[in-house]
Amino acid sequence: MTAIRAAPDIPQARFRDRLAAARDATADGGLSALLIGVGPDLRYLTGYVAMPLERLTMLVVPAADNVPVTLIVPRLEVDPARRAPAIRGGYVDLATWEETGDPHADVAALARAAGAGRVGVNDTLVASHLLRLQASLGDSEFVSAATVLGRLRIVKDRDEVETLRAAAHAADRVVDAIASGRLIGRAEADVAREVRDRLVAEGHETAAFAIVGSGPNASSPHHEASEREIRAGEPIVLDIGGTLGGYGSDTTRTLWPNGGAADAEPGDEFRGAFDVLRRAQAAATAAVRPGVPAEEIDATARQIIDAAGFGPNFFHRTGHGIGLEEHEDPYLVAGNREPLREGMAFSVEPGIYAEGRWGMRLEDIVVCGPDGPDLLNRSDLDLREVDGS
Amino acid sequence: MTAIRAAPDIPQARFRDRLAAARDATADGGLSALLIGVGPDLRYLTGYVAMPLERLTMLVVPAADNVPVTLIVPRLEVDPARRAPAIRGGYVDLATWEETGDPHADVAALARAAGAGRVGVNDTLVASHLLRLQASLGDSEFVSAATVLGRLRIVKDRDEVETLRAAAHAADRVVDAIASGRLIGRAEADVAREVRDRLVAEGHETAAFAIVGSGPNASSPHHEASEREIRAGEPIVLDIGGTLGGYGSDTTRTLWPNGGAADAEPGDEFRGAFDVLRRAQAAATAAVRPGVPAEEIDATARQIIDAAGFGPNFFHRTGHGIGLEEHEDPYLVAGNREPLREGMAFSVEPGIYAEGRWGMRLEDIVVCGPDGPDLLNRSDLDLREVDGS
User: Selecting from 1.20.272.10, 2.60.40.1930, 3.90.230.10, 3.40.50.2300, what CATH number does the domain B158-386 have?
Assistant: First the structure.
């Protein structure tokens, strides 16, 4: 396997800037404070990657500049918290709570000091914490912090784009390795294990998913790799990804192992559909530029697939944003009129599925550049007819 | 590496029984329905392991017997949902929503059909869904479903105990393999990678954590494995776990690599403290039996450590429940007066930490048997003085 390519680190001072922007946006949004638990928002604002366990870790970001930003952590996690860039930089005060303490009351007190009223919570905060905070702050209105932070996180800076690119290239190498190896006679789950091992070997911290849908299983978009044995003369939808440097990879290619036999090549129906899919994916990608509404990218792919008579066979949106989360804003779906902006990053992934018979999907991660699309993936998008034996 | 030991499957009919018990408990708890999103509660009730993505998947469990239980899933995940035991068994109706649909409104309609009023949501439901459901069901009161399901999940049946045992034994083999291999001169993170690989090779689906705290890092209970090089003559807190058959493993041993040199053996201070820890862990474990309050197990360990003068150096609770979650009820912590019951499963894990100098912890998973403790782990609890070179 090839060597690990390093992703750029996010410079420490970037967290100071992000926190300042978050405070401004919180005030502009009419909120008194943000209450941010473990997850991507916390990582975005502080660089702290906390364990996703049941003890409350929470960043309180007051809108008012004269009230400090505070991170509350369980005492037994104070050492990792101290190493977070925003703590090291002195942009955030650190407070701890003891095992028999009441951290929800501590957060409520900080929220009241910030003015209480309307407060924003991170979208991934779990109900066990949110319900307790709602009980502790009975007079406050709780809204999604995404209304504030979404505007910041949706546009990636240069370091974030380069990290996404490093993740995409790592995933490309895994796709190419899988496509050039043995497939026929192996269980889908066995190929999925190889995908995960290779993603980690390529520098991913986590290999979050490895969809290996062969034959009829290719028609289920979120198929879990099963014990089904892959055969010659059928498609494989290979949809893989994870995180590298905290940022997501996510790419899909359609493979066709033929075992070197002429009678195991794709038939006209499949080839015809794939040609439609290939054109739809390319046209949707080419339509990416600042100012174009997100739903128009979806419509571009859908029109081509509809016109070829496959409309009912493409029953999911065309894409999702990607960054610190696998799926985040912007979503490329009918009804989302948000104009694309330079620095937005998202998947473009139309698919065509014949229920119980076959399926196909192509997915690239695309960044909206100043004049058009910046494609982060670069592995071959054509139908991968491979030997596979 | 040794062969994978299979964990027993949970029989399909068990989900029918669990759903029936959940409906009874929901009615008894004064709730009209449970709204259960992706996570351990959903797995417990239906066997369905859904992708933890942003599209809403939700099980609606009405208290009333004459209203069906319904699972709502995104259309592109209907195939994996169909394979869930509770769907295959016909205990739950399956409904799908399309990409441009409003699944929160669909859930709200089902909750209203169940009577609305007070509804319970799973503790791991994320805020993005909970806030939308609260907006859609403005007159309802939302409470934690743990008040209902916690009573069921906290007692493990025989199949669950045997799955936990299989997970524990797999983790034991990993601990023993690490203790007998090279440690000195390796980065903590490198050892952590080996732990993860070995847990997967031993049949774990996920290797959720691998704490490798060496030397001064051993004093930080939730230390993340770092690039620090392990040396001879210092302790290593090795705390590892993940899931096997969906159920958690979690075990901690304290290692001391000496490189075969007499001058790298532990000193009197460390040996003395370890003796205290060993006795505290053994006494706490021995105190496990039905009827004993959870906090008494904590107090048993704490009294021994306090009496030896290490009270301030043991600043976390003694244990947590384990099952479909790494950490769940019952918590062994001061203030938790809940009596232990046969079938409860939890960690017993006191620790002693000298800030910035050294640390030690011992952790076993213990099930409360009819007359006393059933120890799931069986690897040696003594200080592991190993060569490590």
Answer: 3.90.230.10
- How large is the C-alpha radius of gyration of chain A? 23
Q: Does A122 contact chain B (CB < 8 Å)?
A: yes
Are the CB atoms for A347 and A363 separated by under 8 Å?
Answer: yes
> Would the pLDDT of B367 be above 60?
yes
Q: B25: which residues sit within 8 A by CB, 6+ positions away?
A: B148, B149, B151, B152
Separation of alpha carbons A137 and A223, rounded Å: 42
d(CA A94, CA A85): 12
8 Å CB contact of A209 and B51: yes
Q: Using CB atoms within 10 Å of the CB of residue A184, give its burial: 0 to 12 exposed, 13 to 18 middle, 19+ buried.
A: buried
Residues in A closer than 8 angstroms to B124, CB to CB, are 126-128
Which residues of chain A are within 8 Å of residue B224 when distances are taken between CB atoms? 80
As given in the structure block, the two tokens for residue A135 are: 């009980």
Domain range summary for chain B, segments of one domain joined by +: 12-153, 158-386
Predicted confidence (pLDDT) at residue B201 exceeds the cutoff of 60: yes
How large is the ipTM?
0.91
Say if residue B3's pLDDT is above 50.
Answer: no
With 0-12 CB in 10 A as exposed, 13-18 as middle and 19+ as buried, what is B74?
buried
pLDDT for the residue A52: 79
Confidence of residue B7 (pLDDT cuts 50, 70, 90): low
Distance from CA of A124 to the nearest CA of B (A): 5
Question: Residue B169 region, left (φ>0) first, then alpha (ψ -120 to 50), else beta?
Answer: alpha
Specify the pLDDT at position B212.
Answer: 97
**What pLDDT score was predicted for residue B23?**
97
* pLDDT reported for residue A4: 42
Suggest the residue from A56, A102, A126 to mutate for an interface test with chain B (most B CBs closer than 10 A).
Answer: A126
Between CA B361 and CA B221 the distance in angstroms is: 8
Average pLDDT over residues B9-34: 96
Which of A75, A100, A124 lies at the smallest CB-CB distance from B334? A100
Q: Name the residue among B125, B126, B316 with its Cβ closest to that of A99.
A: B316
A12-153 in CATH: which number? 3.40.350.10
Q: Is B100 on the interface with A (CB under 8 A)?
A: yes
CA B226 centroid distance within chain: 24
What pLDDT is attached to residue B103?
97
- What does the pLDDT read at residue A178? 98
Q: What is the pLDDT of residue B40?
A: 96
State the average pLDDT over residues B311-330. 97
**Mutation target among B48, B98, B99 for the A interface, most CBs of A within 10 A:** B99
What is the bridge-based pairing of β-strands A373-375 and B70-74?
unpaired
Report the pLDDT averaged over residues B217-225. Answer: 92
Residue B4 scores a pLDDT above 50: no
The parts of chain A modelled with pLDDT lower than 50 are 1-5
Beta-carbon separation of A127 and B127 below 8 A: yes
CA dist B340 and B349 (Å) reads 17
Are β-strands A58-62 and A70-74 bridged in parallel, bridged antiparallel, or unpaired?
A: antiparallel
Give the chain B residue nearest A74 (alpha carbons): B316
CB B145 within 8 A of CB B36: yes
A319 with A298: CB under 8 angstroms? yes
User: CA B48 to CA B86: how far, in whole Å?
Assistant: 8
Report the C-alpha gap between B236 and B183 in whole angstroms. Answer: 10
